[in-house]
Specification:
Number of domains: 3
Largest sheet: 4 strands, parallel
Order of helices and strands: EHEHEEHEHEHEEHEHEHEEH
Strand content: 15-25%
Bound molecules: FE3-S4 cluster
Structural class: alpha/beta
Number of strands: 12
CATH topology of the largest domain: Cobalt-precorrin-4 Transmethylase, domain 1
Number of helices: 9
CATH architecture of the largest domain: 3-Layer(aba) Sandwich
Distance between the termini: 5 Å
Strand order of the largest sheet: 1-12-10-11
Shape: flat
Helix content: 40-55%
Mean pLDDT: 95
């Protein structure tokens, strides 16, 4: 059985950076808490917990003196609240998200109605809206062109949740164009997600089975699994090697492996090693 890893898979730059910052804090013996789980990966969250980095679901739950902000970022009000409580801060907001926050604020400052293309309840989108509002802007969030309201005061600026697809951005821009509105578009899409999806789709076409590694609670990993399941004859979503079953790979000549943007390298190697031991 031949094992092929996707050409682009696993932890993205922003997730790896957040993880490194958290582990540095642990190495320095700081008792820290992340505001919400650092990433959607139970094994990583447990490993951090063991290293003294626990999860606080809200600021009220923080009982240490150091708070780590995760890669999605937070609202400016949350940052201010952390500092005004006298707590120290490690800001692991992904630089791509920071760029989107600045773009939202710039559009608002220049008088635009800020249209945020993304999922309304996602923490990153909440942050983008809050930065735009703080800069004095009108803000609305749309998941698709269908959600655009009838009347939108001009000028209009668009900012995009980093993990959205370019097709979604184009759809919203085109819908505004049909109404004669020419928005200022800040393309804040991060290509990490699309690159992993494209690499997984390409590999899934060439294999007998695909293994997708990452948290069962990770939406980007679940999406990768769905993409693979559309094409590969068999597809399995696992977090650890213990979830693999040898009989599922009977008769397979080629097995493809990919992993979500919140899956660190050691988890990928552990699964690949188990598959190789059967080959
Ligand atoms: Fe950052 Fe893109 Fe990852 S925005 S957290 S590098 S998916």
């Amino acid at each position: 059985m031949k094992i092929i890893e996707a050409r682009c898979a696993g932890a993205c730059y922003g997730v790896q950076r957040a993880l490194d910052l958290a582990l540095e804090a642990a190495d320095a013996d700081r008792k820290a808490q992340t505001l919400g789980p650092l990433i959607h990966n139970p094994q990583v969250v447990a490993k951090l917990e063991q290293a003294g980095i626990s999860v606080a679901d809200s600021l009220d739950e923080v009982d240490g003196d150091l708070v780590i902000i995760r890669s999605h970022g937070v609202t400016p009000e949350t940052k201010e609240a952390i500092l005004s409580k006298g707590l120290s801060l490690i800001d692991a907001t992904c630089p791509h998200v920071v760029r989107a926050q600045r773009a939202a604020a710039d559009l608002a400052r220049s008088g635009c109605t800020v249209v945020v293309v993304g999922e309304e309840s996602h923490p990153e989108v909440e942050g983008l809206c809050a930065y735009a509002r703080q800069a004095g802007g009108r803000v609305l969030v749309v998941a698709s062109a269908d959600e655009l309201p009838e009347a939108i005061p001009e000028p209009v600026g668009i900012v995009v949740q980093t993990t959205q697809s370019r097709a979604k951005l184009d759809e919203v821009t085109a819908a505004l164009g049909r109404r004669g509105i020419r928005p200022i578009v800040k393309d804040t899409i991060c290509t990490a997600t699309a690159m992993r999806q494209q690499a997984a789709a390409d590999l899934a076409r060439r294999v007998d089975a695909m293994v997708v590694i990452g948290g069962h609670n990770s939406s980007n990993t679940t999406r990768l699994y769905e993409i693979c399941a559309q094409t590969a004859p068999r597809a399995y979503h696992v977090e650890t090697p213990g979830e693999l079953r040898r009989e599922d790979f009977e008769g397979c000549d080629i097995v493809g492996v990919t992993a979500g943007a919140s899956t660190p390298e050691d988890q990928i190697s552990a699964v690949v090693d188990r598959l190789r031991s059967w080959s």
